[in-house]
Amino acid sequence: MRILWVRSARWLLALGVLALSAWPLPAQRAPRVELRPPSASVSASVAARDVLTDNSFDQLLRNGFPVRLQFRVEVWASGRWFDEVVDRSEWDIIVRFDQVDRAYEVVRRTREGIASLGSYATFADARAASELAHIPTLTLPPTGRQGYVTVQVDVQTLDISDLAEMQRWLQGEARPAVQGKRNPGTALTRGLRTLVTRLLGGEVRHLEARSPILTF
Length: 216
Known about the structure:
Elements: H1 2-21, E1 32-36, E2 45-49, H2 55-62, E3 67-77, E4 84-98, E5 103-110, E6 113-120, H3 123-130, E7 146-157, H4 160-170, H5 187-200, E8 203-210, E9 214-215
Antiparallel strand pairs: 1-2, 3-4, 3-7, 4-5, 5-6, 7-8, 7-9
Helix pairs in contact: 1-5
């Protein structure tokens, strides 16, 4: 019982710190998506800017809550009656804090696998790494046809069910956890993690961008 109480006290203390960090801060640059449309010689380039500037993200990371930026890019071809999706690409940028090494780790997860974007001593450097532009492989409409590119970015703390699988990703395991065999912690721990996640926003932001009409 004493061990359970100590763990509970630590979680409640973390909860209080996070709650205080969630108060409004002075005006900051608005989060946005930077989209460089594709051309004949260069593919599309996508980056999320000024998304993790709020200090509450640093508090979340230091208290064991990885942050994920989910990207989705779609190439559309314009039609006479309706537009159609020609191709799409999805990837994640994941930032976590390693309690052992006291360092921030940033990775990019695509359908091809996981690529490390570096390990950093400061949150500012990790945030800069998370803003590195990515050039996805996309199929474009036929030459001469018109269309456009759209981008959606969802920024969220990882859900409880994702935490164990996040560890597997970072350890290089390709297969997801077997349903029903995850063990993210006690019921008390899960409840407190869920409360913190909801307090600071399970889905913190949703960003969108769209290119002008292009002739491919």
